[in-house]
């Protein structure tokens, strides 16, 4: 302070020390404004952290989707989506026109495959079991997705 030419005169004595301890520091009147800015910056920091975590998770998902297993699961996702839409569409048609559905896509696919390959196969028996398994897989994955979503909801 002496080099800059700023010499501060301190009041002497007991009352001078009491006054310096009890007097407010310069800039303390803006303390609430500074606290609000700090809170806003801390919230910004939290949001940036969450965005960074989301970006890393997205990057990992993209890298996983390029692997064979990722492509396989992506194909299965499209297959089951189309299968669900077809089942809903056909159920709606059957209800609206009051008709009984005779074949579903699984039965039709097995019939075509058996006729094309020319093998002996009980289509009626196995198509029911395969359809049941496919519907079970759809239900299990839907419940799994629901439970994952519920765990993300803050309480």
UniProtKB/TrEMBL annotation:
Where is it found, in Gene Ontology cellular component terms?
Answer: Golgi cisterna membrane
Task: Return one GO MF term.
Answer: voltage-gated monoatomic anion channel activity
The record's listing under Pfam families reads:
ABA_GPCR (PF12430)
Does the UniProt entry include the keyword Transmembrane? yes
Q: Which residues form the signal peptide?
A: none
For this entry, list what GO says about its biological process: intracellular pH reduction
Question: Domain Abscisic acid G-protein coupled receptor-like: where?
Answer: 64-152
Where do transmembrane segments lie in this chain? 75-97, 130-150
Where does the source fall among the domains of life?
A: Eukaryota
The protein's UniProt keywords, in alphabetical order, are: Membrane, Transmembrane, Transmembrane helix
Q: Keyword Isomerase on this protein?
A: no
The identity of this protein, by name, is: Abscisic acid G-protein coupled receptor-like domain-containing protein
Organism, scientific name? Aquarana catesbeiana
Which taxonomic lineage does the organism of this UniProt entry have? Eukaryota, Metazoa, Chordata, Craniata, Vertebrata
